[in-house]
Write a structure and sequence with these properties.
This protein has about 55 residues and is mostly beta strands. The chain is built from 1 helix and 4 strands, in the order H-E-E-E-E.
Length: about 55
């Protein structure tokens, strides 16, 4: 099966410098670039950008 090749597990790390991470999967065919999402960081109690870490 090619499950891990197409949809790998990635870590999203906070850009606020708190070290908080989210873990998710992404489709490598649709988004080959690094993923950036705006999500909630409970350590700074606000929404910040989370970027894909490799």
């Amino acid at each position: 099966m090619a499950r891990n090749d197409v949809r790998p597990i990635i870590k999203l790390r906070s850009t606020a410098g708190t070290g908080f991470t989210y873990v998710t999967r992404k489709n490598r065919r649709n988004t080959p670039d690094r993923l950036a999402l705006r999500k909630y960081d409970p350590k700074v109690t606000r929404h910040v950008d989370f970027r894909e870490e490799r």
